[in-house]
């Protein structure tokens, strides 16, 4: 029965309404399925990438930088390739930087093992990203180290093992030293950072750097301000609060260092086999401690580098030079 003013709803209207609801529901379900599938594919792709490689360093350029302590240190803000950063992040591969006041070299690898070999696969690589720091705006050059060594060594098999920590300056030219294995024998090759060409093989004796006691010095607690000195770089951790000496000595560099993708580095000056800025490097280290603290508060020489043959407490630079046994021949990653 209909009341006055009411209209009878036809069966067709009800049918079309139901079909419309079913259509909307089907389209929504299809979208949900497709969206979930895309997420699953992306997740699976990321998982396959991280499982495929043992080491993966993403591409990066210098976004901003500032020298500190009379060019004995540098703060760099990196601009990473976001896609590669996302792919590589789960591996947390260490980054190796070699630097002096003229050049900063970033070793960039994507490898299935710890070493690069002549028979690498096409999706693997080993680059040296060479940044010339002498112009006001750093100039970046990419050196395909694997290809360079393949061409230089011709048909011989080889493995790239590591790099020396110190860029060596000889006759006003800067060289990075590459440690390789060839025919079951360890070799050292020098690469000119200006020409990006292999100069030749170096003897182990010729690579010895004198006055390198600072490289042998250790600290029992070097994470007190939320900053770790690792290799030759100062890396922030989650405990970093900004309470470091750099804030008081160089505020603009401190602001730069406090940014998310910023890292600081010691700039080692080596000329004709001599490390010429050892004490200055320790002053750079002080910048990343809490105000009033010093690297010598808990510094010691490990037994193998001490003339005493045991771990030796070091209170100042003079003691470091007195007890260091000069047995560290070279410094590798």
How would you describe this protein?
The structure is a single chain. By secondary structure, the chain is α+β, with helices and mostly antiparallel strands. It folds into 2 domains: 152 residues, no CATH class; 111 residues, no CATH class. Helix content is 27%, strand content 31%. The protein has 8 helices and 21 strands. The strands form 4 sheets. Strands 6, 9, 10, 11, 12, 13, 18 and 19 form an 8-stranded mixed sheet that branches. Strands 1, 4, 5, 7 and 8 form a 5-stranded antiparallel sheet that branches. Strand 12 and strand 13 form a beta hairpin. It is globular.
Summarize the structure.
The chain has helices at 11-52, 82-88, 145-153, 213-216, 246-249, 251-257, 278-286, 317-323, and strands spanning 55-56, 60-68, 73-80, 96-99, 103-111, 116-117, 125-132, 139-144, 159-163, 168-170, 173-182, 185-192, 198-202, 218-219, 227-230, 233-236, 262-266, 270-271, 274-275, 299-301, 312-313.
List the helices and strands and how they pair.
Layout: H1 11-52, E1 55-56, E2 60-68, E3 73-80, H2 82-88, E4 96-99, E5 103-111, E6 116-117, E7 125-132, E8 139-144, H3 145-153, E9 159-163, E10 168-170, E11 173-182, E12 185-192, E13 198-202, H4 213-216, E14 218-219, E15 227-230, E16 233-236, H5 246-249, H6 251-257, E17 262-266, E18 270-271, E19 274-275, H7 278-286, E20 299-301, E21 312-313, H8 317-323
Parallel strand pairs: 10-18
Antiparallel strand pairs: 1-5, 2-3, 3-17, 4-5, 5-7, 6-9, 7-8, 9-11, 10-11, 11-12, 12-13, 14-20, 15-16, 16-17, 18-19, 20-21
């Amino acid at each position: 029965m209909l009341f006055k003013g009411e209209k009878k709803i036809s069966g067709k209207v009800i049918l079309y309404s139901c079909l419309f609801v079913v259509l909307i529901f089907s389209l929504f379900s299809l979208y949900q399925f497709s969206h979930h599938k895309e997420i699953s594919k992306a997740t699976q792709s990321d998982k396959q990438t991280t499982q495929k490689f043992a080491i993966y360093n993403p591409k990066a350029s210098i976004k901003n930088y500032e020298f500190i302590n009379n060019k004995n240190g540098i703060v760099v803000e990196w601009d990473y390739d976001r896609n590669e950063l996302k792919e590589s992040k789960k591996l947390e591969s260490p980054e190796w930087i070699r630097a002096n006041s003229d050049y900063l070299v970033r070793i960039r690898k994507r490898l299935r093992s710890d070493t690069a070999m002549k028979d690498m696969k096409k999706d693997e690589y080993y680059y040296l990203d060479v940044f010339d720091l002498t112009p006001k705006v750093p100039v970046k050059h990419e050196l395909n180290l694997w290809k360079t060594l393949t061409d230089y060594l011709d048909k011989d098999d080889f493995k790239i093992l590591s790099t020396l920590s110190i860029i060596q300056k000889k006759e006003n030219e800067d060289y990075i030293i590459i440690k390789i294995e060839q025919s079951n024998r360890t070799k050292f090759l020098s690469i000119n950072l200006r020409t990006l060409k292999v100069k030749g093989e170096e003897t182990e004796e010729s690579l010895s750097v004198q006055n390198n006691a600072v490289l042998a010095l250790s600290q029992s607690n070097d994470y007190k301000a939320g900053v770790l000195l690792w290799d030759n770089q100062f890396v922030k951790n989650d405990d970093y609060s900004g309470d470091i000496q750099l804030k008081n000595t160089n505020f603009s560099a401190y602001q730069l260092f406090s940014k998310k993708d910023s890292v600081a580095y010691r700039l080692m000056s080596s000329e004709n086999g001599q490390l010429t800025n050892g004490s200055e490097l320790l002053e750079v280290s002080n910048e990343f401690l809490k105000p009033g603290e010093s690297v010598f508060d808990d510094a010691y020489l490990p037994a193998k580098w001490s003339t005493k043959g045991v771990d030796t407490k070091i209170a100042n630079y003079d003691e470091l030079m007195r007890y260091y046994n000069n047995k560290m021949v070279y410094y590798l990653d």
